[in-house]
Amino acid sequence: MLERLTTVVLVLVLAALAWMAVADSLPAPWRLLAIEVEIAGILGILIAALLLVGLLALLHSHDRSFSASSEIVVKDSQATRRLCVGP
Amino acid sequence: MGEEIGRDDAAPLQAVVNEVVAEAHLRPEELRPEDRTFLEQHALKKPLRVLDIWALGVGVVVAGAYFGWNLGLKDNGPVAMLIASLIVCLLYLTWVLALAELSVAMPFAGGPLAYGRRAVNPLLGFVMILGCLFAAIGTALAVGGYVAYLIDPDNPNQAVKLVACLVTVAVFFAFHAWGVKEQSWAMVLMTYGALAGLVLFWVVAATHFSWERVWPTGHLLPEKKGWRAVLDAVPFALWWLVMIETVALSAEETHEPHRTLPRGLTWAQLTLIGLVVLTWLFACGAMDAQDLAVTQVLDENGEPTTKDVDYPLLKALAAIPAGKSPLLFYGFGIIALCGLIASYHGMLYGASRQLFALGRAGYLPRILGDVHKTRRTPLAALTAASLIVVGFVVANLFFADAVAIAVLVSTLTALIWYVLAMICLYLLRRSSPELFRNYRAPVYKILPAFVIVLSLFAGLVYIGIDHAGVVMTVAGGLYAAGLGYYVFVGRHRLEAAAPEELAARAAMGYRK
Fold this sequence. Notes:
The complex is a heterodimer of chains A (about 90) and B (about 500).
Chain A: H1 2-23, H2 35-61, H3 64-85
Helix pairs in contact in A: 1-2
Chain B: H1 7-23, H2 33-41, H3 50-61, H4 63-66, H5 77-105, H6 111-119, H7 122-151, H8 158-178, H9 180-206, H10 211-214, H11 228-237, H12 257-286, H13 289-293, E1 294-298, E2 304-308, H14 312-319, H15 326-360, H16 379-398, H17 402-431, H18 447-460, H19 468-488, H20 499-508
Antiparallel strand pairs in B: 1-2
Helix pairs in contact in B: 3-9, 3-12, 3-15, 5-11, 5-12, 5-17, 5-18, 6-7, 6-17, 6-20, 7-8, 7-15, 7-16, 7-17, 7-19, 8-9, 8-15, 8-16, 9-12, 9-15, 15-16, 17-18, 17-19
């Protein structure tokens, strides 16, 4: 759920960047919102994206499923170490 | 160097070699004796833990909070700079997560070399690590110059600058040659010092804070520029965070990289985002944004003109009533030096590990791949990296714009290697999914694509900057020189037993 929400927000960030790149060359009637509202909207999207990606990053770096598979590598590594170094 | 291994060192060395072999996704018993001997002679220690990785990540970048970013405020204003900074923060947060995935999959000193080598071929690996190397050298040069400036800000004559840079290079060469754990300990201390300097600045700046300066009523973006102001601020906003990827080069010296790297990198990046936002907030709140970027001076004809501000935090402090105390002003200057030196320290680490990896793999002269027989530090690569920095410092005596161009070339080549690295990540996920069983980045399907789009967006902005022609020519010339060297010399001398090469051969069937 959190990943899907983050994906949506990241897509919105890309849309905001595209808007920034073209907005100034668009005809005036196309600018439906005041520049202050556009700025607040884009800042909101960027902050939401940073918070969501940051939260997911922290969760992922402590994710049990990945830690479990990591144990295999650690155990492999310790086993080979014991094999070579001796008791 | 490295040929004779004492009996006491042999057992832990064997363990390190076995870990490197396992990280190349080979079984230790498969390894040919001559390949094992090569790895024993070129093995690094693995002492780095989460705190070390965090300190390396924060320390290598923290100089960006002290200078450089403020030029983005010029004619753009604080709000445009904030939006540009948040875009860059998001680029780097997603980039380090994707990079963590790659560096856990192939935790070798020549990180980009290994990714490009295994994903496509040795040429791509070489091109990728070249981009990373230019970035390290360029940033080290800029930091070296600033150290000299801080030592003598009123009279930054060339002799003082040269001596300050040479002393810095010599001292940190000695630190790095001493041992990786020792240099990491110094890095942790300097990073704490750099953070203390920023906290001191925030506290003093808060005494003179005004929301009106941060969020001006009327036009939030300059009326003439509109959203263009945000795009113009992006190249300077990159300076906040560029080079955090140096941390990926520490993977081979990291204890349990599959745990340590993602945690260390994530915490470092989140810390840096906090530093970016708070430093922007308090600097722009304490002083008018335009004054943080430029100073009014008179030219040779007595006409008023502007000069870029090289030391924005010091200038803001000097303008605040609470910051007028000489003790506070010079105390902050000395603490700020920690941040700048910490960044040079990290740059030297990154540049030396890249030269070491290129030498060990045979792309550059093999002597660069040698390590000290007991300390296991890459002495020859450290010497070469230090001498390159000295060469650039001397060149700067004759070419005044050398630092500015080196910084712009370094950030541009950094963006190129971000794009190439993400393409490699997609290719490797498809061809070798087993590499990524230990760590996978969040939102992994679109994350690399997001990094590519943001990097291209930031790269395209370079077309409109000052020195654009020179920067593109220098960057193109450096790549051409590197490619020429690879085609005529490097590709004939590749070392099959280097870990980056072993990882690629493991994918093709090791014995073939």
